[in-house]
Write a structure and sequence with these properties.
The chain has helices spanning 2-19, 25-44, 83-91, 113-123, 140-145, 160-166, 172-188, 210-220, 248-257, 282-286, 309-315, 330-342; strands at residues 55-58, 61-62, 67-68, 79-80, 98-101, 127-132, 150-154, 167-168, 195-201, 224-228, 262-265, 287-290, 295-297, 324-325. The chain has 360 residues and is an alpha/beta fold. The strands form 3 sheets. Strands 11-10-9-7-6-5-1-12-13-14 form a 10-stranded mixed β-sheet. Helix 3 runs parallel beside helix 4. The longest helix has 20 residues, at 25-44. The structure holds iron/sulfur cluster (2 copies).
Length: 360
């Protein structure tokens, strides 16, 4: 219990210090009000000022070195966001607190990744999270010293055969070796951060692997494991779970292991899983996503537009799926985001047309 409280306290302090740095009081005040105004707009539809996303997903790499059957990033031409472009981008997002470095590609393919994390975390006081397939790993010491808050490995199942079928092109043993290397380096450096986690996508194919995944996560010594539903991946390589009752067993398994590892279950369609904010979509009001070319989306959810982003841009710049290009015209991006949020309650935006999170 004491260990649990100690860990939670350390995490709370880390988050608070980054979000509201005492050495930058003006910035802390701006972040606080941005958060408050975003909350008022989300909860009550009241909009006083243009807000900035509190959570920003930045695509540092478009494209992937493997080709998961539910994705498609492996078939996409690779593009990269350079360190200089990242610096330019982040300059206009002072109020943003959380940075997520992934979208439609493998972030560890970027040669600048540790520089990018370090700049965001240390220079700009952001809370940085990275998701990776862990088939490749930057220098572990450099990575840990770049001060990310959380690094998560995408491992849907610890059944090697199934894993290599789903994550086509990935070698299971290499992924586990890389994960172990990072955990050992963190221990050797006696660091409390980053939190090292595992993210497992739950589908019919992996439904029976909940417990195996949790046991393996404990054995490997990761800090937490997270389960998420299949929605909203662009390809249909995996089968979504047809009988929602089947998922309920995950909550029982969670209880069994929750004193040994932190387990998060993102809510599935039927509301099974951890709590999710009720009402209009909070992601629309608190988040944003920028791709490697600077094009902005209201959130990081790949949807029906995601596969065809460039075609959409050519046909209609002001389509409500795209909020503008932050490199070309940041002011227009802000204006478009304000319009998107002001009309969010009146009519469901095209961008959100198939999304179950629009109103819950
Ligand atoms: S799901 Fe992730 S690891 Fe798999 S192809 Fe897509 S970007 Fe790559
Ligand atoms: S409703 Fe869905 S698609 Fe729309 S902003 Fe929210 S999460 Fe994104």
């Amino acid at each position: 219990m004491a260990r649990y409280i100690n860990t939670r306290y350390r995490q709370f302090r880390f988050l608070l210090n980054k979000a509201f740095p005492s050495w930058e009081p003006l910035l802390s005040v701006r972040r606080f009000w941005n958060l408050m105004f975003s909350y008022l707009q989300w909860k009550f539809g009241i909009s006083f000022f243009a807000t900035k996303p509190t959570m920003l997903t930045v695509e540092v790499v478009r494209g992937c070195n493997i080709n998961c059957i539910m994705c498609g990033a492996g078939e996409t031409k690779k593009s990269f966001l350079s360190f200089d472009k990242f610096k330019e981008l982040i300059e206009n997002f002072e109020e943003t607190i959380f940075i997520f470095l992934y979208l439609w590609g493998e972030p560890f393919l970027s040669k600048d990744i540790t520089k990018i994390i370090r700049y965001a975390s240390v220079q700009k006081s952001k809370i940085v999270t990275v998701y990776s397939n862990f088939t490749v790993l930057p220098d572990e010491v450099e990575l840990i010293n770049s001060e990310p808050y959380e690094i998560t490995a995408s491992i849907d199942t610890f059944d090697k055969k199934k894993y290599e079928f789903i994550r086509t092109g990935a070698k299971f043993d290499k992924v586990i070796e890389n994960l172990q290397k990072l955990i050992k380096t963190k221990q050797k450096l006696r660091k409390n951060f980053p939190i090292i986690g595992i993210n497992s996508i739950v589908s019919e194919e992996t439904l029976d692997d909940f417990e195996l995944n949790i046991k393996m996560a404990i054995e490997l010594g990761v800090d937490k494991i997270k389960f998420q539903g299949l929605f909203p991946f662009p390809k249909t390589g995996l089968k979504d779970i047809s009988d929602r009752n089947k998922i309920k067993k995950i909550t029982e398994i969670k209880k069994k292991y929750s004193d040994r590892i932190k387990i998060e279950i993102l809510p599935f369609y039927g509301g099974i899983g951890d709590d999710f904010p009720k009402g209009y979509c909070f992601l629309a009001h608190f988040s944003g996503a920028i791709d490697t070319n600077g094009y902005a989306l209201p959130c990081c959810m790949p949807n029906q537009f995601f596969n065809n982003l460039s075609a959409l841009l050519l046909s209609s710049y002001r389509n409500d799926s795209i909020l503008g290009n932050v490199f070309e015209d940041h002011k227009t991006y802000i204006r478009n985001r304000v319009d998107f949020l002001r009309s969010f309650r009146n009519s469901r935006p095209t961008f959100c047309s198939n999304c179950p999170l629009y109103y819950r």
